[in-house]
Amino acid sequence: MKNKILILTRVLLKSSPGLGIKSKNKLITLLLYAVVGFAIFSIFLSIFALALQMYNQFSVIDQQGVILGLGLAASSAIILVFGITYIMSSFYFSTDLESFLPLPIRPREIIAAKFLVIVLFEYLITAFIMVPFFAVYGLKSSAGLLYYLYSLFIFSLVPVVPLVIAAVIAMLVMRFTNLSKHKDLFRTISGIIGVFIALGLNFALQKFQTSLSPEELEQLLLTGNNSLAFLTSRVFPTVQWAIEALLNYNSITGLINLLVFAAISGLLFILLLYFGELVYIKGVMGFSETSAKRKVSQLELEAKVKERSALISYTIVELKLLLRTPVYFLNCVLMNFLWPVFLVFPFLLSGAEGRQGVEMFRSILLEPDYAGIILVVGLGIISFIAGANGITATSISREGQDLYLKKYIPVSYQTQITAKVLSSMVLSGLGALGFLAIMVILLQVPLYLAISLLVLGWMPLLVSALGGILLDLFNPKLDWDTEQKAVKQNLNVVFSMLVTAVFAVIPVGAVFLLELNFIQSLILSLIFYGVLNLVLYGLVYRQGVARFNELA
Amino acid sequence: MIELSNVNKTYGGTVKAVDNLSLTVPSGEIFGFLGPNGAGKTTTIKMITGILAPDSGQIKVNGIDIKEEPLKVKQQIGFVPDNPNVFLRLKGIEYLNFMADIYQVPKDERVERINDLAKRFEMNDALMDSIQSYSHGMRQKIVLMGVLIHNPPVWILDEPLTGLDPRSSFILKEMMHEHVQQGKVVFFSTHVLDVAEKLCDRIAIINKGKILFTGKIDEVRARFASDASLENIFLELTRDEE
Predict the structure, then answer these.
(1) Does residue A493 contact residue A388 with C-beta atoms inside 8 Å?
(2) Cβ–Cβ below 8 Å for A408 and B77
(3) Chain B residues inside the 8 Å CB shell of A308
(4) Are A158 and A79 in contact (CB under 8 A)?
(5) Digits of tens for pLDDT over chain B (242 positions)?
(6) Would you tell me how many other CB atoms lie within 10 Å of the CB of residue A122?
(7) Which of A330, A460, A474, B93 gets the highest tally of CB atoms within 10 A of its CB?
(8) Which residues of A touch B105 (CB under 8 A)?
């Protein structure tokens, strides 16, 4: 049994693609790696700094152990949230299932292999949190070698419990509902729920922080060393053993806790395998197509048949695919409308303080001296919304192996690119409108500012759309077996985000440094985004079109 | 008419998929393109349809050079790829509408074509469903319908008959005959030698990127043992010389 699991795991790992950085030009490839490396490094560094700051703060009240708890609890929560979607798509929606099912493999072997692969992927995410937090604690408390060995061991086991929970939830849902028949709808809904769980967690965390009264804090302090750590880990009970093990690594208590943690993780994993043996396959099968056939009247048919230009028709199909494909909907469409929510979220949450913040913000917005900077920041955010949704940055990648379909139709590559850009303009535009609406309703932005943003908004939108498609034309990820890989595991989205962020910061910096007033900022924005658009337009419709022609 | 002269295509700098291939498919003929797996059939078709550019050589469809006027050539062609799993999230009718827009078919004509094709392939009741819910054969039929909706003068079909039920496959063959009777072209690749033998006016046999033989079935017979089946001749021709 063990052998088969390992063989399967190897196959699954091998068939999952790498970073997707491939370019004929070695220099570009190198550059891409450098950019990604830098981005990763800076995220890593900032989390490191956060951990360090927290350690210093908590060590004043001798509660430094809290950062271990925070690191572990945060990692577990993230694994759980991501885990449900990972497990769903890997266990149930992956195309490789059809080739595994006829093989003489037990369901639990498939589960084990797929589970292991997900655990490995989770390491990539949790490393960002756990490595800085564990390292800071270790270094600052000058812990011994054993602490680091314990850390490594715990790091490798942390994903197990949250993933088991995620897997059980997923399997139960798939087994006992007929939702699996409405695969697309289900994925969309569960994705939306996932997003709101993430938002809810954020909310709960903030509530939790503020609801601790001074008396409670004092009590916690009185009860001695590091008890606060356990409070943060209450969400995931197993995490307590891990914390206890790390805090007491140099005594027998630590070892015992470590062993308990490992044993429980292992036990839950084995239970999952047997649970899956009962439930999994039944959820997977009966998955095939459903259809409700009905007669179509001649009138109905004629009503459905509409004549449109190739450009409009192509754009509509792009939009339909974005809206109907769950992964695309969640990442490219829904995200688009969530950014504005994220942006105002902090204001809505933290009670009286937050309201004060909103008031302060409003008074800044009404201050004519700041109008210029608010304009460029607003345009920057609009550009970022469009850059981050990845609609154009994945528009070629999304074609995948079916790209050839776009090569034999009698529609020029210019027109096809235009249709893809248009589809981004439509959806990003709606996202930008949502953002503007929030600015106007919630923050009461002055009307002239709102109108300026509305009138100029298409320019940063177009910059992001053109920039995105240029990125994707030159580095498309066409070799994928699940749509998820085309969008979620596509670095072009990250590049597009970074590039638009840089583009957004330049005029903001200029307005700030040169102390430009509103009219000057307006002119600067016009020139900046105008020139940028012209340059990108030239690149996309010359080099980009030629590149589209070469792609096969 | 399809004309290929001295067409070459190499993959990855080493693998020669198509080797100095010249071929003329005159109008008014059903032309079968035969060859073992990996012989270069699909590569050739991809070059004729504009999916791949040849490294060298010339390709003309109805006298138009694909390199010079790719869109005009593409407008001439109706191409049925071998993989029917496309546009799965569109409904049948949406897909047909899209294809009709792409090939600029006027509304009246497209309603008429959709009616006619849906009747022939018995797809009337499925048009409002998403293609994802179709069986393999139905997917093939909807792709065929999408291709034929603009009534292209040149049909190019990559393995069109695998997966179709006998009735649909019979109808398609009938349509091929009708099509060439109007002086147009049908060019299709196949492994199924029986079909080629019965259906084709002429065939070409390709192996390792080279055309081994072009001509009428009778000519093949005349050239080889007269009583041999096409299968035997094919096996003889494409056997490795080891």
Answers:
(1) yes
(2) yes
(3) 101
(4) yes
(5) 999 999 999 987 788 889 999 999 999 999 999 888 888 898 999 999 999 999 999 999 999 999 999 999 999 999 999 888 889 889 999 999 999 999 999 998 999 999 999 998 889 888 988 898 888 889 999 999 999 999 999 999 998 887 788 888 888 899 899 889 988 999 989 877 778 888 899 999 888 889 888 888 778 777 776 666 777 777 777 776 54
(6) 21
(7) A460
(8) 307
